[in-house]
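BUG: 3D viewer hangs when loading the predicted structure for this chain

Environment: internal workstation, default settings.
Expected: structure renders.
Actual: progress bar stalls at 90%.

Input used:
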Amino acid sequence: MPAIAKPRWIRKGYEGMTFFGHIITHCEQEAAAFNKCCSALKHHEMIHLYQARSTHDSWLCFYARYLYYWLLASRYCRRLRHAGYLLNPFELEAYAHMHDPAYPPSDGIAVEWKHYAQMPLSERYTHYANNMKQNQK
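Structure tokens produced before the viewer hung:
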């Protein structure tokens, strides 16, 4: 998945974004770094590619589901800033495995997001909070 620089496409605070099979970054230097090495952030974005394969191999289905889950989780914005993003099943899976280069399995399809999607929002929130506590230790 090639990385390209489109600084106006990304909000501040975000380092990269997957858009129809490309990684969008803030500047050319970041794009070159993405293309050269296998960082955890690049793997996070690659997981989104594998997730799109699991949504009928369609970016449109992936983005429709992503938007649906984002809107659903946005109800938690009073408890958690950026809840639509952080409690999104696609992001939960990508963050959970971004440091695991062996993920996804050899079939190249990431489906753990389906497990997160079946969780009630309160359970996703608890899962996210527990993971944040573990990462701070």
